[in-house]
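Is this the right way to post structure tokens for a design question? Let me know if I should format differently. Anyway, here goes:
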């Protein structure tokens, strides 16, 4: 999987995201995010991870794998690639938020070494309901 920067891949990311999430982000949202100098991505045609460089740490903004390519280790590989980059660039930690009801993602993050460090009540809006966010951290 390769690393990318810049808005060239916004349409492809929006397409994958729409197949991975019910509340998908628009192409414009990806264009804006990718135009930020702090945004870095890793991925291929099966999935991607977008992160923000916060200086001495990183934050995972989103992570999506196409449904038919899940449970093959692709997300784990993306996280590993981001961690390798973060270590090389002397980052001290990686942060993320995940919906409390997203079992696959919570299992993935625990398996890759993240631990829960907080909770944001009613953080996500899913249709008519609100879902808490679990804040997780991986110390490098
Ligand atoms: C969550 C997601 C990114 C996982 O991608 P993936 O490529 O299937 O993950 P991996 O194959 O690397 O799985 C690694 C581990 O995560 C856990 N995991 C992944 N999917 C799981 C599931 N459906 N149920 C339970 N555990 C799961 C397992 O521990 C798995 O290890 P194992 O296969 O040896 O049991 C993918 O399901 C996805 O795109 N979901 C929709 C978008 C999303 O929720 N993104 C995260 C938002 S924070």
């Amino acid at each position: 999987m390769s690393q990318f920067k810049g808005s060239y891949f916004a349409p492809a990311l929006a397409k994958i995201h729409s197949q991975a999430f019910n509340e998908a982000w628009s192409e414009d949202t990806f264009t804006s995010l990718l135009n930020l100098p702090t945004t870095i991505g890793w991925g291929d045609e099966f999935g991607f991870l977008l992160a923000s460089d916060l200086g001495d740490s990183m934050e995972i903004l989103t992570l999506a794998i196409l449904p038919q390519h899940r449970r093959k280790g692709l997300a784990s590989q993306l996280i590993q690639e981001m961690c390798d980059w973060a270590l090389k660039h002397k980052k001290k930690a990686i942060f993320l938020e995940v919906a409390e009801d997203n079992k696959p993602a919570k299992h993935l993050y625990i398996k890759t070494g993240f631990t829960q460090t907080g909770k944001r009540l009613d953080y996500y809006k899913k249709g008519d309901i609100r879902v808490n966010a679990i804040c997780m951290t991986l110390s490098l």
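Format looks fine. Someone answered above. Worth noting: The chain has four helices and seven strands. The mean pLDDT is 97.
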